[in-house]
Structures are given as structure tokens and as C-alpha cells.
Amino acid sequence: MTQFITIAVDGPSASGKGTLARRLADQFHLFYFDSGSVYRAVAKHILDLGKNPDDPEDAVSAAIYVRDHLTADMMEDPALRNDVVADAASRSCRFPPVRAIITETLQLYASHPPLKSHQKPFQGSILDGRDIGTVVCPDANVKLYVTAKAEIRAERRFKELTAKGIATTYETVLQDMYERDARDSGRETAPLKPAADAIHFDTSTMDIDTAFAQAVEVIRQKLV
């Protein structure tokens, strides 16, 4: 295997890209970096200060703070996983200066991640997000694009929220999915789209085990 490899995994919300990326990181002994957690950390900082995620100055200030204080523990904060923070992240990250700051941070951590003391020596990274293969790591050794129909993704998210005891409806989740997809794919800077050389996985009818097995084979072929 090539030394210090980088794998990019992109796709819309609830497509299964995070689950797939984590399993691949374990399989190939790579550092896993969820870029969404960085954007959520920015959003959480905005909300914690009582600021506005739709205000570009508030968003840029928060992005600078996260860039300068980012740790592995910060990215694992359970508070980042709630939908209020996720929605604020989708809104605040649309500003080009915010994305530029976070892109620079992600590029640094792709090769110099904030490892914990118990983690194995660095061999490479796998990053998931919306623009990893197109903007953050355009020279990644392997690029995967994981997607699924919006209705399928909304059903997954609805079940996830219901299991957590969060009251909502499928229709509400689906509408939120449509709006988030529109923001992600419609922004001028680093829109959600597959890299030209990405391998596509549609998980609408594919379970995670099948996607994982196929992705492992793709990666092995790419890295020989």
C-alpha cells in the first residue's frame, strides 16, 4: 500500500458515507476525519455565543476560533450531532470565507491529524464530507461518492431521530433534506458534487456491508 494515503468520501446527508468511511478507516488503519464535525463545531460555537449562523461576520469569527482551537475531543462532542447544530452548520458554512478557513484546516489535518496518545502512528487519512474530492483533497489516492434517493435518506434520518426520542415527522425530515441538499449543491463555493474521477455508490438499495465490500475492492485495486 502507498505510504500516507488519502481517501476522499463525499456525498449528501444520510447517504451512509460516514458509516462507510469509518469502516474503511478501521480496515486500512487510517485516521478518520469527519469534516462535518468541523463545520458543526463552528455552528455550535456560534450558537453558544448567542450569535447568528446567517451572519457572515459571526460565522467567520467562529471558523477562526475553531481553526485555532480544534482538538480530537472537540470533534467527538455529542452536542455536535443534534439537528439544531446541523442546520446551523449548513447555513453558516455557505459563506466562502468560512469554507476557505475550514478547507485550510482540513488540508492540514489530512496529513497532520490531531492524534490521541493511544492511537497508532499515522499512515494516512480518510475524510468524508461534501467537497473533499473536489476541493479539500483533489489529489486524493481514492475518491468515493456515496449517495441515495432523498426519500431513502429521509427515512433513515427519521428512524434515527425517532430512536433518540426526538419528536418529528417523516414529512418534516424530508423537507429539511430537500432544503439542505439545495443549499449544499447550490452554493457558489465548493458545492456538493462528485469529483470527475470518483467511484459512485448508490446506497438506495445497497446495504452497508455490500457497499463496504465493494469499496474495499476498489481501494485495493487503486493502491496496488
Describe the structure.
With 224 residues, the protein is α/β, with parallel strands linked by helices. The chain has a single domain, classed as 3-Layer(aba) Sandwich (Rossmann fold), CATH 3.40.50. Helix content is 54%, strand content 12%. Helix 2 packs across helix 5. The chain starts with a strand and ends with a helix. The relative contact order is 0.21.
Which key features would you list for this structure?
single chain, 224 residues, alpha/beta, five-stranded parallel β-sheet, 10 helices, 54% helix, 12% strand
Listing every helix as H and every strand as E from the N terminus to the C terminus, the arrangement reads EHEHHHHHEHEHHEH
Note poorly predicted spans: none
Structural class: alpha/beta
Termini separation comes to 6 Å
Number of helices: 10
Gross CATH architecture: 3-Layer(aba) Sandwich
Might you state the CATH topology name? Rossmann fold
The overall pLDDT average reads 91
Instruction: Indicate the overall shape.
Output: globular
- What's the CATH H-level superfamily name? P-loop containing nucleotide triphosphate hydrolases
